[in-house]
Design a protein that fits this description.
Blueprint (H helix, E strand, L loop, with lengths): L12 E2 L12 H13 L4 E3 L8 H10 L8 E6 L1 E7 L20 E5 L3 H14 L7 E5 L3 H4 L3 H10 L1 H10 L5 E6 L2 H8 L8 E5 L8 H14 L2 E5 L12 E2 L2 E2 L2 H16 L4 H11 L3 E5 L6 H11 L4 H9 L15
Parallel strand pairs: 1-2, 2-3, 3-6, 6-7, 7-8, 8-9, 9-12
Antiparallel strand pairs: 4-5, 10-11
Bound molecules: NADP nicotinamide-adenine-dinucleotide phosphate.
C-alpha cells in the first residue's frame, strides 16, 4: 500500500547533517534546526543510526519529544548497529563517503543486515528516538559505494534477513512501510523485482538530482511508478554543491562538477531564480517521487528550502536547461505540467 499520503507534504527533512556531518554542530543549533523545520510545517523526518553513530537519532528524538507522535512521519534505517564499544570515527571505513561523520559519536558501528540485527536495530532506534513506533524503515546502503564488489553478497544477507523481517512487520501493522535507502540505483532496481518481501517506499539519494539522474530516469522511476512504489529523493543538493556548499557526494567537489554547477548557476541567474529552487523542484517533478528530503544543520536553511520549493521558475529556464543538455531530454520538468 502506498504511504504517499502519509508523507504530509512534499518537503521532508533529512537529518544526516545532525550527526555532525562535516563539522561539530552545537547541540542547540541542531535542535533549533529541527524546530525550524517543524515551524515551517515539515512533518516528515528521516534519520539513521549511521548518522554520527546514533547522534542524529538522539538529537531528532530530543527535538521531537515535545510534539505529538501522530502528528509526524518518521523513517529510520537498519543495517548498522551502534555498539557501546568505542572506536576512532576518523578511522572508520565509510566506503566512498570518507570521513563524512568523523565528528560523530565514537561508538563502534557494526554492519549487519541479518534478521536478528534488524530487530535489535529497531529497538535501539526507538530508544534513541524516544518513540514507541516507526513509520518507515529503510535498509541502509546495501550498495556498491559501501561494499564494492561485495555488495551483492550483502544484498543477499539483507534479502533473507532484513527484508523478510520488515515485510512481516508491515503485514502486522507494526510499521507502515519499508524499503531501501541507498545512493545507488542498482540496488533499488534489484529490490523492485523481488517476488517475495516487496518494498513499498524507496529512498534514493543523490541519484535523482540536477547533476545525476539519467539512470534512475530510464528504468527505476518508471518501474517504481508502475508498481506503486513511492520514491523519496534524498541528497537533492548532491550533499551541498547545488545549494551553495562545496561538497559533491560527500567529498570536496571536483573542478568538473564546479564548472557544471557554474553553468547551471549562470542560467538560473539569467532567469532570476536560485539553483536550490531548481534542484528541489526538479526532483519533485517526476511523478514517481513522493517527497524530497534536503538535509541541513542550520535553522536558517529551512526557510531557504521552503522558499526554494515555492519559487516560481519560468519555463524558459527549463527549456534552456534542456537545450544545454543540463537535464535529460526526457526528464519530466515542472513546466511539463503547465
Ligand atoms: N543512503 C541513504 O539512505 C541516504 C544517503 C544520503 C542522504 N540520505 C537522506 O537524504 C537527506 C538529504 O541528504 P544530505 O543531507 O546528505 O544532502 P543534501 O540535502 O543534498 O545537502 C545538504 C547539505 O547542503 C548544505 N546546504 C544547504 N543550503 C546551503 C547553503 N545555502 N549554502 C551552503 N550549503 C548549504 C547543508 O549545509 P548545512 O549543514 O551547513 O546546513 C547540508 O550540508 C539526508 O539528510 C538523509 O536523510 C539518505
Amino acid at each position: 500500500m502506498s504511504i504517499r499520503h502519509k508523507l504530509q507534504g512534499k518537503l521532508g527533512f533529512g537529518t544526516a547533517p545532525l550527526g555532525n556531518m562535516f563539522r561539530d554542530i552545537p547541540q542547540a543549533e541542531a535542535l533549533a534546526t529541527v524546530d525550524a523545520a517543524w515551524e515551517q510545517g515539515i512533518r516528515y523526518f528521516d534519520t539513521a543510526p549511521l548518522y554520527g553513530a546514533g547522534l542524529a537519532e538522539l538529537r531528532l528524538g530530543e527535538a521531537l519529544a515535545k510534539r505529538k507522535r501522530e502528528d509526524y512521519v518518521l523513517s529510520t534505517k537498519v543495517g548498522r548497529l551502534i555498539l557501546d564499544e568505542i572506536e576512532d570515527p576518523a578511522a572508520r571505513d565509510m566506503g566512498e563517503k570518507g570521513g563524512v561523520f568523523e565528528h560523530g559519536l565514537p561508538n563502534k558501528i557494526l554492519n549487519d543486515y541479518s534478521a536478528d540485527a534488524t530487530l535489535r536495530s529497531i529497538e535501539d532506534s526507538l530508544k534513541r528516538l524516544k518513540t514507541d513506533y516507526l513509520d518507515i524503515v529503510y535498509v541502509h546502503d546495501v550498495a556498491q559505494d559501501f561494499y564494492g564488489d561485495q555488495w551483492l553478497a550483502q544484498f543477499e544477507i539483507a534479502r533473507t534477513g532484513a527484508f523478510r523481517v520488515l515485510d512481516r512487520l508491515r503485514d502486522e501493522g507494526v510499521i507502515k512501510g519499508w524499503g531501501l535507502g541507498v545512493n545507488r540505483v542498482e540496488a533499488l532496481e534489484l529490490a523492485l523485482d523481488l517476488k517475495e518481501a516487496r518494498p513499498d517506499t524507496m529512498l534514493l539519494a543523490g541519484r535523482y538530482t540536477l547533476l545525476d539522474h539519467e539512470r534512475a530516469l530510464q528504468r527505476l522511476l518508471p518501474a517504481a511508478q508502475q508498481r506503486g512504489v513511492d520514491i523519496v529523493v534524498g541528497g537533492p543538493y548532491s550533499s551541498g554543491i547545488l545549494a551553495g556548499g562545496t561538497h559533491f557526494e560527500y567529498q570536496k567537489a571536483s573542478p568538473e562538477i564546479i564548472a557544471r554547477v557554474e553553468r547551471i548557476k549562470a542560467i538560473a541567474q539569467k532567469h532570476g531564480i536560485s539553483v536550490k529552487a531548481a534542484a528541489l523542484q526538479f526532483a519533485l517533478a517526476h511523478p514517481a517521487v513522493a517527497a524530497v528530503i534536503p538535509g541541513a544543520s542550520r535553522p536558517e536553511r529551512i526557510a531557504e528550502d521552503h522558499a526554494a520549493l515555492n519559487q516560481q521558475i519560468p519555463s524558459a529556464f527549463w527549456h534552456e536547461m534542456r537545450e544545454q543538455k543540463l537535464v535529460a531530454a526526457d526528464a519530466p520538468l515542472p513546466t511539463d505540467k503547465e
